[in-house]
Each structure stands twice: as C-alpha cells, then as structure tokens.
Design a protein that fits this description.
GO terms for molecular function: DNA binding; transposase activity. The chain contains 19 helices and 7 strands. It is α/β, with parallel strands linked by helices and 399 residues long. The protein folds into 2 domains: 134 residues, no CATH class; 248 residues.
Length: 399
C-alpha cells in the first residue's frame, strides 16, 4: 500500500492495485486447488512418479468486481484438473453477475450498465451478456411468486403502480403490489401482478385467489386506497376480513379539490373526522364540516368522504393501537417508491415478464435482504399486536 501511495498507482484497470491483488489471490487459490488435486505441493519431490504432475499454465481473462483480470490457470498433464474457484468455461465470477443484477435492480438501463462498467471497471460487456445474466432470475422469480405463505395475516396492504409496457403499442398497465405484516410485525412483499389496462373485480379476484391458494386462510384487515372492485373481491375471498380505506388517501384526495391557501384550515377539520372516537362522532364532525364555509366552498370534498364512508368507518371501531398501524398505506407506498425508481429510467418494457423481472430484482435487492431487520418492523407493533389479540381473539393466536 505504501508503494502504491508513493507511485500513485491506479485502483482499478490493468495494473491497478485491486486488480493485481485480485489476480494474486485467485492465482494462489488456483495453485492450492492444484496441490489438493495432485496430492502434493509445487516442487515437492514426493510427487515424482505419482502419475500426474503440473504442466504449466494457460492464460484466462475473467470479469470480477475489480474489473477484467487475466489469470495464469495451472494445468496438469492428465488434463483432469477442474478448478472450483474459476470453473472451466466461466468468464465471469459470481460477484460480477451480482453486480450487474444490483445495477439493474436500481433502475439502470442496459446502456447505463454497460457505460458504468466501462467507466468504473474498464470492462466492455455486450447487451446479450447483461440479458443473459438478468434472465437467470426468471426461474427464481417464478419460485418466489409461488412460494407458500402463512395461514393468518393481521394486515395486508394493497396498492398499484403503473408502468409502460409494449403490447402492439405502448400502454400504461397497473402492477399490483401486496405487502403483508406478519405476526412479528415484519413486512413481506407477497407478490407482484401485472393487470390489464383497467382495474376491476375480476382482476382482483384472480390476485386474491392466488394468495389464498398459496396458503392465506384469513386476513384481519386489508388496507387499500379505494381500488375499484377490491372490497367485494376481499370479502368474497376472506369473508371475515375488514376492508379499510386508507385515511391518508382520503385526506390527499380531499386536498386536491382545495386551494393551497385553505389547506391549513382543511387539515384540522378533516382530522376531526378521522380521529373521532366513534362513528356517530365522526358523522357529526362530517356534518359540521359540510355546513361550514369550507364545506360549502368545496362540496366535492364532502362527497369524497360520503362516497368512501362504508370503507372508512371500520377504522373508527379499532382501538387506538390498531388505528396507528392501519392509518395509511404508507408502508406499502414506501416500497412502491423504490419500485418506481427502478422503472423510471426505462421508458417502457418490451413485455410483462421484463417488467416483473426488474421489479422482482428491486424487491430482492432493496426489501428482502432486510425483511427481518428491526427497521422493517411496523411502528408501534407490540402494542398493536396486543390489541389485535384482544380485538380478533377468535382469529389471532400468539404462540
């Protein structure tokens, strides 16, 4: 390191410090593998007459996290040496593939990935190579999409994001995202589904039936943002489930109808409705708002709450501890924000599978590795779990 600092050696590229260290480590590992294969160390007289021996080396260039590295791969006279760290025929080490997948999951296009690898690692890769590497996750995606799920979930959040997919012409298609909160309060992305151009009960029945067929027998609360046909599909799939409209979505929808200068008055007026202790008190707060100057000025806000009333009022029956965790779909929206980032730079996708591949990689890269991390436990979960155990005592079993 001192010599590298003194000479100003590059970090990557031909002759770069990391490249040379990577070469040295790999070649030492290959020599150790050869010694294990032959049964004796290099230059050991005990190997004479053993029937096999070293037979020089062959050059081989492999792509690694440090860039392209040219190795001297040892040979044996009998041609039986089969190295494991750099397998025969392999031109990329596993870490390099993972680097491509990581860049792909973060929203970089094929062109961006090629440019990035060329700039940072001095490696030129073809579009076909990137496609081959990313296509390798298709089977993994299918297994993930069909994995069995727990029987009972306290909460499932459902939302949709939109992506452009070419189907003759480029059209916007919804991708449905279901995120469950398990008994430990941990988030889990249950699945991704590409829907038709219009949302409806038929589409939602197919999605929810798949979740049921994968093992979900009961859900206490399904939180959504008023997606068309979803409430009926939920009750048909899980008759005991409570469908809860996202309160935050109601507030946002209300504020869209109002001038920004009135938001400071509207927010507390709406809070009086959704923070009411009972449904009767909430009705009184809504009536008071409708009769106020703001209600008269913005009748569309009153209509928004009246239209969503049947799906909003279940929220008012919950204890305060449960209200805190079902207050909004922010938990799934934070995931959607990450998924949107992975699709934003691509313009459109050539197929449904291409879209799902990118979104799954984003889930795997950004969500799944941390799924059991404390930061991914729902806020206020312990107090909420106690409330769930009492409020849904015939359906929630804590072991």
């Amino acid at each position: 390191m001192d010599r590298a600092d003194a000479s100003g050696a590059a970090l990557l590229g031909e002759g770069g410090l990391l490249t040379e260290v990577t070469r040295a480590v790999l070649e030492r590992a290959l020599e150790a593998e050869m010694s294990g294969h032959l049964g004796y160390e290099k230059h050991d007289p005990g190997g004479r007459g053993s029937g096999n021996s070293r037979n020089g080396t062959s050059p081989k260039t492999v792509l690694t996290d440090a860039g392209a590295v040219t190795l001297a791969v040892p040979r044996d006279r009998n041609g039986q040496f089969d190295p494991k760290i750099v397998p025969k025929g392999a031109r990329r080490l596993a870490g390099f593939n993972e680097r491509i997948l990581s860049l792909y999951a973060r929203g970089m296009s094929v062109r961006d990935i090629r440019s990035h690898l060329a700039t940072i690692y001095g490696v030129e890769v073809s579009p076909d190579l990137i496609s081959t590497v990313t296509d390798a996750v298709v089977d993994e995606l299918a297994a993930w999409q069909n994995r069995p799920l727990s029987a009972v979930w306290p909460i499932i959040y459902i939302d949709a994001l939109w992506v452009k997919i070419r189907s003759g012409s480029v059209v916007s298609r919804p991708v449905y995202v279901a995120v469950g909160v398990d008994m430990d309060g941990c988030k889990d992305v249950l699945g991704l589904w590409v829907g038709a151009e219009g949302e409806g009960a038929t589409t939602w029945m197919a999605v929810l039936s798949e979740l049921r067929n994968r093992g979900i027998e009961d859900v206490c609360i399904v939180v959504c943002d008023g997606l068309k046909g979803l409430p009926d599909a939920v009750t048909a799939t899980w008759p005991k489930a409570t469908v809860q409209t996202c309160v935050i979505h109601l507030v946002r929808a209300s504020l869209r109808f109002a001038s920004k200068r009135d938001h400071s008055q509207l927010v507390p007026a709406l809070k009086a409705i959704y923070s009411a202790p009972t449904e009767q008190a909430a009705e009184q707060a809504l009536d008071a708002f409708a009769a106020s100057d703001l209600g008269v000025r913005y009748p569309a806000i009153v209509r928004t709450w009246q239209t969503a009333w049947n799906e909003f009022t279940p929220y008012l029956a919950f204890p305060a501890e449960i209200r805190k965790v079902v207050y909004s779909t922010n938990m799934v929206e934070s995931i959607n924000a990450r998924l949107r980032k992975s699709t934003r730079n691509r313009g459109h996708f050539p197929s449904e599978q291409a879209a799902l591949k990118v979104l799954y990689l984003a889930v795997r890269e950004l969500i799944e590795p941390k799924a059991r991390d404390i930061n991914h436990v729902a806020a206020h979960w312990k107090s909420a779990l106690n409330a769930f155990a009492l409020f849904f005592e015939d359906r929630i079993s804590i072991r």
